User: Which sequence fits this backbone?
């Protein structure tokens, strides 16, 4: 099983916290961290823009990434949100096991495998 750190940026800390809670509640992320504000400079629709944003980092598994990305896209206020992921190549075994356990879909009885 592979592990990822997924990233998005968003225009408010409240929106970031709302998405983070959604992802953790749905077991799509074991952890969701919000950093910021940060200052972003980017080109959008032919114009160079700057904005204060909050950087969000989600710890998940490769198996859960597609659903995590879909949930972020649906909940995100941006027309084209940044949703990217990088593999966690090395990490403390116990921490990676925790990510795996916390993102495992709940069984019918509510217990986790």
Assistant:
């Amino acid at each position: 099983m592979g592990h990822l750190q997924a990233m998005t940026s968003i225009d408010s800390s409240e929106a970031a916290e709302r998405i983070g809670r959604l992802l953790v509640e749905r077991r799509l992320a074991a952890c969701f961290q919000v950093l910021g504000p940060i200052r972003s400079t980017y080109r959008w629709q032919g114009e160079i823009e700057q904005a204060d944003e909050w950087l969000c980092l989600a710890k998940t598994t490769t198996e859960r990434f597609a659903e995590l990305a879909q949930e972020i896209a649906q909940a995100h206020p941006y027309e084209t949100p940044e949703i990217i992921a990088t593999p966690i190549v090395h990490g403390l075994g116990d921490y990676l096991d925790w990510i795996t356990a916390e993102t495992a879909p709940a069984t019918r009885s509510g217990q986790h495998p």
Observations:
- The radius of gyration is 15 Å.
- Residues 34 and 56 are 5 Å apart (CA to CA).
- The chain is about 30% helix and 35% strand.
- The chain has a mean pLDDT of 95.
